[in-house]
Amino acid sequence: MDALEERIAPSGPRANERRRLGPTPQVGKLLRCFDLLKGRNRRVDGAKLAQRTGSAPRSGGKTEGVTMDRELYRLVPEASLKRLLKYIYRFGVVQGLRILYRILARQKNVKLHLPALRAPVFLRSGTSDVRTFEKVFVSEEYEFPYPNRTPSLIIDAGANVGYASIFFANKFPDSLILAVEPESSNYELLLRNTQPYKNITALRGALWHQPTPLTIENPKDEHWAFRVVQARSRDSDTVRGMTVPELMAIAGTSVVDILKVDIEGAEKEVFESTVDMWLDRVRLIVIELHDWLRAGCSTSFYRATSRLAFRQFICGENVVLVRDP
Question: HSE of 226 in the Cβ direction (CA atoms, 13 Å)?
């Protein structure tokens, strides 16, 4: 095992078993990329580089010098290289590689320590948790200028396993965050992830336009794609539909400083009716619209918000509307 692998390989009672299994092909490439990145922009001996990366020798056995960038692109596809470099850019070389290594390694449940967070986060490898984690903590799609630096109430509707709530809890430690998630396995991991944060309250339910029983329409889809519909009398596994006024009442306030909405198409119902009861009390909305799932989501959202003086900008997949005080 080389120096890098010793530094970032897992420790604990299962470490010896993991070392016998050896790294996955993805992790093996990651380790070889680290060697290349350590010497980026230097010229190296072609034969030694071929031996280190497992590539074929150059024609005629010549040891021609090659650049690191060329070999990096040969070693991994462009999309994978971009992903690797995003981790390095966000967390630094060693931390970025350590975090990506743990995500790609053979573990069902992964515990990650991120430099900017007060507590570790957990994810289920090989699931949409990874892409949700990358959206929040690698691409930082919720990191933008917030006009109110001391928000009192943040509603995280469609909290999934809690990454956005954790981001807000670390950025705004004095805020109350209501994390609303309807699906049971996501909710269990949401509770685990947010347990260290006393300012996060997890609620099993779904944002809706009226308080009514709801059920998951697509329980076999990926963890970030669950959609709710109004429950029928024969549905046994139901959750409560929760309205924005109800959530404000739980928080004991009449203003929502940040309303984060990622509810897989249910924004159509939420913004289609009863918005006059609460929309003018929301100062900032960050929403992912799902017209590709349900026609009319954007129409419903913009018809409702156009009545008020919101300014708009885009951050990643999110539409952000800010209302001046």
Answer: 26
Q: Which residue has the tokens 């940040």?
A: 258
Helix (H, G, I), strand (E, B) or coil at 185: helix
Phi/psi at 247 (nearest 5 deg)?
-70, -35
Closest by CA to 158, choosing from 213, 217, 226, is: 226
For residue 13, pLDDT beyond 70: no
Q: What is the pTM of this model?
A: 0.78
Domain positions in the chain are 3-87, 142-323
SS3 230: strand
Q: Do the beta carbons of residue 164 and residue 134 sit within 8 Å?
A: no
Helix (H) or strand (E) holding 169: helix 163-171
CA-to-CA distance for 134 and 113, rounded, in angstroms? 14
Query: Check: CATH 3.40.50.10490 for 142-323?
Result: no
Query: CA 258 to CA 146: how far, in whole Å?
Result: 9
Q: How far apart are CA 121 and CA 20, in angstroms?
A: 27
| Amino acid residing at 100 | L
Angstrom distance (rounded) from CA 73 to CA 67: 10
Query: H helices then E strands: how many in the chain?
Result: 13, 14
C-alpha pair distances (Å), 287 with each of 21, 103, 122, 156: 43, 27, 24, 10
Give tens-digit pLDDT for 88-119.
999 998 899 889 888 988 788 999 999 989 99
Q: What are the φ and ψ backbone dihedral angles of 69, each rounded to 5 degrees?
A: -60, -45
The predicted structure's pLDDT at residue 233: 75
For the residues 131-146, what does the mean pLDDT come to? Answer: 96
